[in-house]
Amino acid sequence: MKLLRIFVYGSLKAGAKRDIFKDLNRTVLPARLSGASLYDLGAFPGLKLGGCSVVYGELHQYYEQEQYRYILDLMDQIEGYRGEKTDLYKRVEVEVSLESGEKVKAYTYVFNWKVEEANLIHSGVWENKPES
């Protein structure tokens, strides 16, 4: 069976304020993405590929194929992804590592704008902030 795998690292993590798929049939596993950096953009984080840092997050695996399009469409909407140059985030496929050492391909959302004014999150871990 082909799974829909999505690596999340911010407000979409299990139990976070935008965990909108908690009632769907899924598995959530700790995961990490090497060769990426995480930035504090205020209310949410931004992931950029490249460099030698590690971003820690979760791998969400979904099992119901008839829900895959719905899940991706809603996540694209949340992340401001429409497949255009000016999108807030881009959906890309990356390879993430699980605690077991297994490596799997998953979609994630990469921040598409500049991060010059943002603070690098050196730990690679986003701590959800309370809503203002």
Provide an overview of this structure.
- This protein starts with a strand and ends in a 12-residue tail after the last strand.
- The chain has one helix and six strands, in the order βββαβββ.
- The chain has one domain: Roll (Hypothetical upf0131 protein ytfp).
- The model has no long low-confidence stretch (mean pLDDT about 90).
- It is mainly β and about 130 residues long.
- Helices cover about 10% and strands about 45% of the residues.
- About 25% of the residues are buried.
- Strands 1, 2, 3, 4, 5 and 6 form a six-stranded antiparallel beta sheet that branches.
- The protein is globular.
- A hairpin with a 4-residue loop joins β2 and β3.
Morphology: globular
Mean pLDDT level = 92
* Approximate strand percentage: 35-45%
The CATH topology comes to Hypothetical upf0131 protein ytfp
Kindly report the name of the CATH homologous superfamily.
Gamma-glutamyl cyclotransferase-like
The CATH architecture is: Roll
CA gyration radius, whole angstroms? 14 Å
Structural class: mainly beta
Number of domains: 1
Low-confidence stretches: none
- The sequence of SSEs as H and E is EEEHEEE
Separate helix tally: 1
For the sheet with most strands, the description reads: 6 strands, antiparallel
Q: How far do the termini sit from each other?
A: 42 Å
How much helix is in the residues?
under 10%
- Number of strand segments: 6
The CATH class is Alpha Beta
